[in-house]
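Hey team,

Filing this mostly as a record. A colleague (T.K.) asked me to run one chain through the structure pipeline before their review meeting, and I want the input and output archived in the tracker in case anyone asks later how it was produced. No errors, nothing strange. Just documentation.

Input sequence:
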Amino acid sequence: MKRTFFLAICFILVTISVSVAFVACEGRQDDNAPAFAMISHSRHHLAAGEYQAARDTILAMRSRYPAAVQARAAGLLLLDSIELAAARDSLGTATEPDRERLSLKCRFFERKLQEDLKKKILRQ
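Output structure:
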């Protein structure tokens, strides 16, 4: 009798756990829409030259919507674009010792963006 009761309780707990997991996964599929809205805000910051605000928006999106896989991938590309734009802006006013570092940073992010875009095109 005790064993049957124990098995019934285990069955109920497993059923509840599976149901909760399905509901949690279902709700997260919609995370891409608000995450892409945050990416749009980040692009506006980038266009205005507000690089730190653009970075912060992407980082907030990544932590707020961890299941928004498509938006997170787009966010990584945008984050690289932000770094490249910030380095290019700084390059114009940099002193000689910093110019070499910023020039290397620009070349790194240019090549990284090119490779990431090639990979993205190949996946589609």
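Quick notes for T.K.: The mean pLDDT is 81. Residues 96-123 form the longest helix (28 residues).
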